Structures are given as C-alpha cells and as structure tokens.
Amino acid sequence: KTKFPYKSPKTPATEATNGSVFMIPNYSGHKVAGGKTEMSNKYSPENIELKWQRYWEENASYQATEAPDKPKYYLLEMFPYPSGRIHMGHVRNYCIGDVIARYKRMQGYNVLHPMGWDAFGLPAENAAIKHRTHPASWTQKNIAYMRRQLQRMGYSYDWTRELSTADPQYYRWEQLIFIKMYERGLVYKKKSPLNWCPSCKTVLANEQVEGGGCWRCDTSVVQKDLEQWFFRITAYADELLKFCDELHASAGSGWPERVITMQKNWIGKSEGVEVDFPVIGFNKPIRIFTTRPDTIYGATFVILAPEHPLLRELVGGEPNEEEILAFAEGERQVDRITRTAADREKVGYPAGRYAINPYTNQRIPIWVANFVLPEYGTGAIMSVPTHDQRDFEFAKKYGIPLQVVIQPQGEPLKEETMTAAHEGEGVLVNSDIFSGMGNEEAKGAIIEYTENRGWGERKVNYRLRDWGISRQRYWGAPIPIVYCERCGTLPVSEADLPVVLPAKIEFPADGHSPLPEMEDFVNTTCPKCGGRAARDTDTMDTFVESSWYFARFTCVKYTAGPFDPKAASYWLPVDQYVGGIEHAILHLLYARFYTKVMRDLGFLELDEPFSALLTQGMVIKDGAKMSKSKGNVVDPNDLISEYGADTVRLFSLFASPPERDLEWSEEGVEGSFRFLSRVFRLLEKFDFILIQPKQFDLPNTLKHLQNKELRRQVHRTIKKVTEDIERRFHFNTAIAAIMELVNALYLYEPPAAADDEAQAVVHEALGSVALLLSPFVPHIAEELWERLGNPPGIFEQPWPKYQDDLVMLEKITLVVQVNGKLRARIEVSANPAPEEHKTMALQDDRIRKYVEGKHIRKVIYVPKKLVNIVVVA
Question: pTM score > 0.70 for this model?
C-alpha cells in the first residue's frame, strides 16, 4: 500500500474552476519499489478515507483562528449527549452541517466548526447506578468512543476547541453567571407546585413535560410542592417576543416560520383587562383576567383554578367542601399540558358561593374546574358560554345559563337554539351603553370604562413561566449558594469558584442524590462572616449548560472570564445553527434568554445567538423514528465497515431534503455506494488525460460539438449545485445534478489521446466533479483531486465558478399568440437584445397575416416564453 503521507508530483495548481488554463499531469499510478503501480482505480473506501483523515489531522486542516481580514462563518450543530454511540439522527444532523462548513470554507470564509459534549444529565447518573460505576467515568468513556465515530465520518471539526460541560473549568463560568444573575435579581428561590418525575426523582420545567410525561423517560409527571431556584425568564418575555419577528424566515437564512410560531405561542402574550368580581358574603373579591372585555356583559359564571389561593376559604363550611378540596388536590397532581388538552373531559364543582358581575349587577355562580390553570392570568376566569367554545361545553354539561352579547351578521343568535359558541366578530347586544358597537371597537372602550370606575385595570399577561433550574440529582453543575444561620442565603465567593462535585460518591439504594448526605460537601464556611454554613445540594438543569456553550466555543482555553471579548466579538453570533425541531421550545428559547442575560451582564455584545436556523427532519425506518425502544436502529459503524463513510454521508444527504424526514432504505445506501464506485471508475475511462503533462488554453469556442456540450454541462452543473446549496440547502437536488454530469461523462466518447481540446475539456469536467462533490463526500473528492495531478488539499481550492455565457442556451422556442390564440412557435436567441423577441414575433410571416390592417393595442411579453399580440379591427 502507498505510504502516508503521499507526496504528489510537483505540478502547477490547476485553474480548472475558472475555465481558462489546465495542466494535464503525468499520472498513471504511484510507482513503488520494483516499478509496480500500487494504486488502482478500484474504489476502496476504507483505505481512501483513513488516508485523508490522517492528512487532515496532521495538517491541522480545520483549526480556526481569528482573521480580521477574512469574512467569518460560524457553523454549529447542536452538540450531542454522550450516550455511548452516535446514531443515524446524529449522522444526518452532522452531515448537513459539514456540507455547509466545507462549502463556506471553499467560498473563502474563515470557518469555525467546533464540537463538544452536553455531558451532564440523568441518563449518565442512572447508567452509573445500574452498572455500579461513576457518572464521570461512564461519560468520559462514551465521549472517547463517540469522538472516534465522528472522526471516522470525516467531519471537519476543529477538535482543538472540544469542550465538555461536565468539566469544572466549563461550569465554573456558569456558576459565575449564576452569581451575577443572583445579584441582579434574575435568580430567586420560592416554594411552589412543581412538575415531579417519580422515576428520575427530580423537578422538571414546564417545557420538559411532554404529553403528561417526563421528556427523558416518559414517566407520568405529578405535582409536588418544593422550594427551588428559578431564572426570571419572564423579565425578558417582551424582548424575546419582539426579536421573534426579527428572526424571520427567508430564502436560505433566518429561522423557520414554524419555530418562530412555536416560540411566540409558548411565550403567549395576551393583552386584556383584570376585573374584580365582588363575592356575596365574602370580604375579598375574585380578580379575573380576560382578553375579551367585549363579551364581559355575557359572563354568567366564574371559574377558579383548583390551586386558587381563595378556594379553601370560599368553600369552608359548604356541604361539598371535602369533595371540592379532594377534587382540587387530585387536579394539582396532573401536569399542565394534560389539564388544558382540548379533548380532555371538562369537570367542575360548584363552590356554593356567588359573585356579582359588576357590569350587569347580576348574581352569578362560582365554580371550580379542571381546565383553568393558576399561572394563567389570576387563576380565575369569567365564563361567557355563548362566545367561548370551552365555556359553552362546560355550561351545557352543567346547565348554566347563556347570554348572547355579540350578534353576527345574518340570522340572529338565540340562546336556546345555539349548538356552538360564536367566537367571531359582530355587533354588541345586551351590553348597556356599548350595545350597537362593533365588538373589536368595544374592547378598548370597555377597558377604559372599567378603569374609570375603579373595577380593574388594563393588563398584559404571558403564558411563559419562570424557568425552574433546580434539579435534585448529583450529576450536574452545583448551585453556588450557601446558607448561613447569621447571614442568611449568600452566593459563593467568586474566588472560591468552581464549586466542584465531590468525586468519591456512593448512590443510595433508591437512586436519589447523595449530595445532601455528604458532610464534606455540605459543610462549608460563610463567605461573609466566616462562620459555619451549608451548601445548596441541588444541581442546575442541564439546559443551562447548553444555553451558552456556543459562546464558549469561541475561546475554550480562555481563563480570565467566560469569554475572550475579542474572540467572542469576532465569531458571534452563530451564522448557521443546525438541529432538531424538538428543541424549538426547550433549548432554543433558553439559549435566546441566556444570551440576552449575558449581554446585560456585560459578557457579550449581541442580542440573539443564532442568525439562521435549519431544523432537519428525523430518520424513519419501518414507519417510525429510529430508536432503541422501537428496535429499528441502524448502527452507522456497520454501514461504515461495509460501504465507507462517504456512502453513509451521501445517502443521508441525497435521500431527502434536510427539513423533511428521511426514510431509511437499504437500496438507497447500496445505490449511493454504486454511484461513488462509478465516479471512481471515471479515472479508468479517462486514463488518456493522465499521460503527458501539457498546458492548454481552453477557449469558449471549441471545435468539436461533444466537447462544447460537455463543457456547457459542467458549467450548468456548477450553477445548479451552487444555487441549490445557497437556497436553503437543497442538497438532494444538488447531488442529482452532479449525477447527471457523471452520466454525461460516461456518454462522452473520448477521442484519441493526442486531442488537446478533449483532454482539456475532460480534465475540467473531472476536476469539477471532484470539487462539487467535496462538501458532500470529502474523502473520495480528495482522492480524485490528487489523482488528477493536483497537490493534496482540495479544500484549499476556491469553489468553482460558472461562466454565464456557457450556462445560457443559445436558442429557445418562443410561443407567439394573437389575442391569446397560438399562431406560431419561433426559434430565437436565448439572450436577446432589448425588444428583440417582440420584434421577431411581429416580423414572422405566419403572424403578419393576423395583424396586417389591424390596430395593435399592446404586445404582452413573458421573457423567454411567449409573446401575445393584442389587436383590434
């Protein structure tokens, strides 16, 4: 076998991409001892791929440094949790990112493409308990294995910037940011009902509850009253919402509209009014919040959330007190998403009390119901069954009266005949002085009326709740807080950071965190008085680590603070982020919030972390997402062993557009391998161009038609591939265009070896195939490039440019109509002078007979498609 590194023949650099001068190398294989040619034209993926991976490593091909004289491009894929091995979902995500990174590098950008590990988390802790090992050992072993897998795929990562979020030198800065947030009032601790996973034995944020289950293990979530730390994300609700509009989707850039909508809905801004409804025989009013003040005259009952703070007082002494309180306690254990599901049965109990609707002065009953949440508005709502479908269903079920207050155009609504709520627009009726007013106009007028009478006030509410970040587990970043009997709650001194997890641990039999029972960890001194103090034994939610890792990648070795100001200013924001749609709420929202916090703390100078976002689809096999639980996982290692990394890359990029799901296909993998083998055999077909070194001037005007057509095909392919990558990363159609070029090369009949023109045209075509394939399948592209006689390192070459005159068709067929009827088809120049096509249509003999003696009112021209001549007698 050829020894590595191979030293290629000294030949001038090709200029094939610019369409002018080509150097034809002296090549017929590599000569080794004994004069034998050792390198064959048979495609051997393993040899080729390992060769070029060593070359990239030894030449530090992908190390990035700041270069103010070059445009920067920061490409990042969502980093993985070190679960033990990469799966096809990882492969697809990272292949997409790698194409973009390599393409931008060849375009002349200074590219940063880093990789690291989201290393904390429950799976590592649970695995450590199961296998009687330490989470750190389990995690480090997995990282080492997965790193080798990623390197074997040939991704262009700058491994000098690798980071692990479980490294104390990483989370020390996270602890510092926590302290700064605490000092700014952006961190607080309170007791509240929280989502609790009995299996993971920890609290979950609202965003981590999916369909009533834990996002990690699917165990049904219950509610539990606990004290825990919160980040005040609600303080940034308005700004997060405002910047959603700036992260708009556009061709090839921005954020997908779907993700923007999901974030807006989760933030859930609603503008309305809070109103006090007096309670008969009770000294406290019930304050409700509504976004529909135009319907307030139709409120026929009030509903309280089971958690409402006045509920126990209100029902005290009532006949059904125990039943109501038991119902309320049961609903407190149900997660929020299940509580508000549209298809969940709506259940309620009358509280036995009555409120007064201040607008109608009517007595209306107070109910407790399962679908009202304490965190929305005030935890109490007015119910207008005629104009809210949810209220309509509830009222019909329990026989509560209806009152129409908005009449739509057409047939009038009647309470006794309504089968559904009218939630649209109309004119107010039964609304005192506002009757006859349009309901949209009435909203503002009724709010002003309310404030003038002191019944309530204009209010803006959000669905978004503060982010609970305490986790009752060991394997996470310790919260840098101590509790002193004399000084109270205090942050750890910055000089004592990081607060490091104790290395020697023993997990209790039930798997709960050992930290509260570890005296050496808990006992400490007060940073203020020097007396005895106790550490907080909760750790931070792992989503905190992933909310700022992208910024640390810019300066992983910086020790004077979280970020090197120069490096962060140069690289940030991330120009293109790639990851799954499942992170639209969790990670992406948290990262946006954390970025704004770091900006306000003076650590960064940017408003948003990711300028553009690409959310790739899932990998589907047998009709379901690939997963261990489904038993349908395909191991990338097996594919690499049989077909090579380039085949795996090509299949994952060609089988489907990035944003859509990819359907697994064994035939598709085999077809990708056959195509690459076919590409490699082109060297054998065109061995005649690799015989004698000779320089050729390649003019645009060629003697032979087949040379001319092949060259046109080359430049059209360059244009197509370039545009498909630029326009929202349509890699599948770009690869299809390269396949067509390869087919054209196989159809090309090579002339005699002495034909200089043919040699130059073919060499340009082969070089273009290598260059265009290089972002998708880098190993075989490097090999082709070198075997064409070029120095190693295809990614040091500029991305090929097409010539406009070669991509344009010389002739096109133009349709000519008279008064909309087809009268002729004419062959015309594809690149006409102004008005040329109109003139040629009017001068055509077949058209003259239809227009002679008539007045031409106008000539409609659809460029390069048709001319329609409108005439009147």
Answer: yes
